Amino acid sequence: MREGRSKLMTPIRKATAALAALTMVVTGAAPALAHTGLEHATSFSSGFLHPLTGPDHVLAMVAVGLWAGVNGGRAVWAWPIAFVSLMLVGGALGMMGVALPMVEPGILASVIVLGLLVLTAARVAVAVGVLLVGVFAVLHGYAHGAELPTAAAAISYSAGFALATALLHAAGLGIALVSARGGNNLAVRATGGLVAACGVALAVI
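^ thats the sequence. predicted structure below, dont judge the formating
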C-alpha cells in the first residue's frame, strides 16, 4: 500500500512543483504583451532576456516543448524548429510594418490552445503540428518585431531572442521526456492545464 501511494505521490509532487514554478512566472512577470526593456534592444543579451519578461511568451514556449515531448518522434525536433524559424519570419514582418490582424488575441489563444493540447495529451500528425505552432509562432514573432525601436540591432537582438525561445522549448521538452521515462505523464498534463488556465487569466486581466 505504501509503495502504491509513493508511486502516486511522485507525479503529484512533480505537478505541484511545475504549477508553483509557472505560477511564480505569471505573477512575477509583466502583464501579457506588455514587454519591457525595448529601449535597450541593441544587443544579443537584451534579445535573450526579452522573452522572459512576458508570461504569454514563456507559457506558450514551454507548452510547445511539452506538447512535442508528448507526441514524440519527429515532433520532438520539428515543432520547436518550426516555431523558432517562423517566429523569426513573423518578427521580420513586424519590423517591416506589415499589417497582420488579430495578433494579440492570437497570442493569448496560443497559450490556451497549447495548454489544452498538453492537458489532453493530443496526438496529431507532425505536419499538422508544424502548421499549428507555425501560425502561433508568426504571431509571437510579429508582436516582438513590431515593438522594436528603429535604432535596435535587429540581427543580434533576434538571435538572442531565438536562443531564449529554443531554451524554453527545451525546458518543456525535457519535462515531458523525463516524465515519459517514469511511465506517468500526470505532471506534464497538469502543467498543461495550468498553462491553459493562466492563458484564460491573462485574457481577462
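The longest helix spans residues 154-181.
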